[in-house]
Amino acid sequence: MSAAQSDTIAELYTSHQSWLYGWLRRRLGCAYDAADLTQDTYLRIIISGRVPQPDQSRAHLMQVAKGLVIDLRRRRILEHAYREALAALPEPQTPSLERQAIVLETLIEIDKVLDGLSARVRETFLLSQFDGLTYAAIAERLGISVGAVRKYMLKAATACLATLGAPCLDTALT
Amino acid sequence: MSDAAIERIAIEANLSPKALQQALEWLVTLWSRETTPEQLYAMTQWREADPDHERAWQHVQRINDRLTSVSSPVAGASLRAAHTTMTRRNVLRAMGLILVGGTAAYTLRDPTLLQSQLADIRTTTGEIRKLTLEDGTRITVNTASTLNIGFTARERRVRLIDGEILVATAPDPASRPFVVETAG
After folding, report:
1. Would you say B153 and B136 are in contact if contact means Cβ atoms under 8 Å apart?
2. N or C: which end of chain B has fewer CB within 10 A?
């Protein structure tokens, strides 16, 4: 990062940090989350290397922060759903806390992939990968041809490629 | 995602786009769980035919590794449940308190002599419920809401006592009007 860029970031932080924190706090209703996401917002901007023009500072901060708020909500909802599903298991089958955390991180990535898919493709993918059904069984269940199942799976696999195929670089950010 | 996207990923990972596309096809073949010995043999031959093929295969294997590391019905159930919750919340937020669509008539009238036929629906705090009525009308009941549903020969009536609902009406063969009545 150049000295000029570093000055601009410093300026972006001192001028707008408390405003951003206030905005996030109103939106989230939680001081801890608001403080976390305020830091994450600046971190995202530093990593992206795209520092906004001074007259667009707040608009840009808000745009980045909104994305983080949505990510946080999705994460919490998924976390809740995962805990509920685990609670339904018999006691000895419950994975360790460390294992649960690892699974949850991967599920969050898979959830992002699924979000970009149509309902049909999503359900086909879930039946194949999580319920262990064969293509023939999926075709019968959904009333579609095996060829269609294969086509949907190729679509899903391609969507996975960008998210799950990449080495894990940005897990520290999310 | 398109072929252009595959090409972009291939170039970033220093792979041949064609080999990457073929590797994805092989992955999808394996996922069928009905792979024949002939297919497995053909796949091995493809991998050995060119170092580019093998590298592309190793790349898509990462997807497989990540997926199998979490694959279980519990994980599938979590993903389905989370997706449903998010979709419902978005719908409720985007559409407001009460929305009556389709060919419905939205009117407020005096409560009539339906009381005996009313069905009572109640959600607790934090619960969101989706109902499908006998005529195909779909109602999403938001948290902490109470409503009564009464269908007669003359009309289809929903009475919201408390809370919020979202109604998507279905056309009625008997052309009965759909009435949503709010308390207060």
Report:
1. no
2. C
